[in-house]
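Posting this for the archive.
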Amino acid sequence: MQNFLRMLAIVAVSAAIPATGTANQNRTQTAVVEADLHCLAQNIYFEARSESLEGKLAVAHVVLNRMKDDRFPQKACSVIRQGGEKRRHRCQFSWWCDGRSDRPRDEQAWAEAKVLALLTRAGLTPDPTRGSLWYHATYVKPGWARRLNRQVRIGTHIFYSDKPTQVAAAD
């Protein structure tokens, strides 16, 4: 099953990268996409590796939702690293600036995170966060959360948007 998911992800990402321009431009574009996929996979791994599939997808979609919003950078790596450039523990995603190693150690969880990053970035997964741009763990109570609209709780994370709370459609 894991090999099937990898193959599906590779096909999806290959289809999502347009092959236009010179060979050098295509290599540069591919390198940027690969770097962003790596950052997105790291974020899934470090923020949600113990979560359900839905929880992992939710964390990935917050990054993608930010990339689509003009208030945030347009690249996954820039979104994830935002705020941690100057001071430790001030970044948007705590794993990035906590001073610990950013090398994944659980090979199976890392492989899953990479596949989910590919599938999510290719637009093949639903957004369980209802468009959320922020989240936090259930065991913390950040002051900023009071100014936002709670969208959904998934596992140990609560997701927020600055838009009115969306009601999930009935199946």
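Residues 74 and 135 are 19 Å apart (CA to CA). The first helix runs from residue 2 to 16.
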